[in-house]
Amino acid sequence: MCLGIPMRITAIDGLMARCEAKGVEREASLLMLEHEQLRVGDYVVVHLGHAIDTVTPEHAAEAWAIYDQMLAATDPT
User: Fold this and answer.
1) In this structure, what DSSP letter does residue 32 have?
2) Residue 10's CB: how many other CB atoms inside 10 A?
3) Which burial class, exposed, middle or buried, applies to 8 when counting CB atoms under 10 A from its CB (0-12, 13-18, 19+)?
4) For the segment 59-74, what is each residue's pLDDT rounded down to a tens digit?
5) Total structural domains in the chain?
6) Contact 8, 43 (CB under 8 A)
7) Would you put residue 45 in left (φ > 0), alpha (ψ -120 to 50) or beta?
8) What confidence score (pLDDT) does residue 1 get?
9) pLDDT band at 25, cuts 50/70/90?
10) Which residues make Cβ contacts (< 8 Å) with residue 2, sequence separation at least 6?
11) Closest CA to 6 of 65, 70, 72
12) Which domain holds residue 20?
């Protein structure tokens, strides 16, 4: 299963963005959202190195709450 990960944009350089979630930073292409008015601080869903959609901070938090529950359910401790 593949998941899109909600991440906050921390820097933009042309069609590339530096994004962060849970202390992890990644580069993501903004090509698929090139017609959006993206700014530092916006949230995007990143899948396979590409920002594929925008989300509100609230939706990003909801998604991470679900991901945290999934990770907790698979934790062997």
Assistant:
1) G
2) 12
3) middle
4) 999 999 998 998 899 8
5) 1
6) yes
7) beta
8) 57
9) very high
10) 47, 48
11) 65
12) 5-74
Structure tokens at 39: 């700014």
Tokens representing residue 55 in the block: 């989300």
CATH code, 62: 2.30.30.140
**Residue closest to 45 by CA, chosen among 2, 8, 1:** 8
Residue type present at position 31 = L
Tens digit of each residue's pLDDT (9 = 90 or more) over 28-61? 999 999 999 999 999 999 999 999 999 999 999 9
Structure tokens at 57: 């901070």
Residues present in the chain in total: 77
User: How far is residue 73's CA from residue 58's CA, in Å, rounded to a whole number?
Assistant: 23
